[in-house]
Amino acid sequence: MKKTVITVVGKDTVGIIARVCTYLADNGINILDISQTIVQDYFNMMMIVDTNRTKKAFGDMTDELAALGEEIGVVIKCQKEEIFDMMHRI
Q1: CA angle 36, 39, 49 (to 5 degrees)
Q2: CA 43 → CA 8, 46, 49, 57, distances in Å?
Q3: Eight-state DSSP code of residue 67
Q4: Which residue of 10, 57, 61, 77 sits 20 to 30 Å from the alpha carbon of 83, by its own alpha carbon?
Q5: Angle at 43 between CA 41 and CA 48, to 5 degrees
Q6: Phi-psi category of 73—alpha, beta or left, where left has phi over 0 and alpha has psi -120 to 50?
Q7: Could you tell me how many helices (H) and strands (E) the chain has, helices first?
């Protein structure tokens, strides 16, 4: 299983989760775990997803999600799980 950590941060607006989840579903990316909070009008979401079935290259997926984030007024970042784990071991 290829896991990716996706974070979404920005001013809260209607439809953020719907737009991100629609992108993931349309590209065969399964959500394994999801956590979201809103603190004083700021939206924060972290997802662990399985990218095993997507036909998208990792770089294309990250670019498209970043563009989607710009479109909806949030910042979307993607990190492969192994890189995320290594960063937090140091």
Answers
A1: 15
A2: 8, 10, 19, 27
A3: H
A4: 10
A5: 165
A6: left
A7: 3, 4
CA distance 72 to 23: 13
Largest CA distance in the chain: 38
DSSP for residue 29: P
pLDDT at site 90: 59
Please answer whether residues 85 and 3 qualify as being in contact, where contact means their C-beta atoms are separated by less than 8 angstroms. Answer: no
Angle, vertex CA 2, rays to CA 71 and CA 29, nearest 5: 40
- Which tens digit of pLDDT belongs to each residue from 39-73? 999 999 999 999 999 999 999 999 999 999 999 99
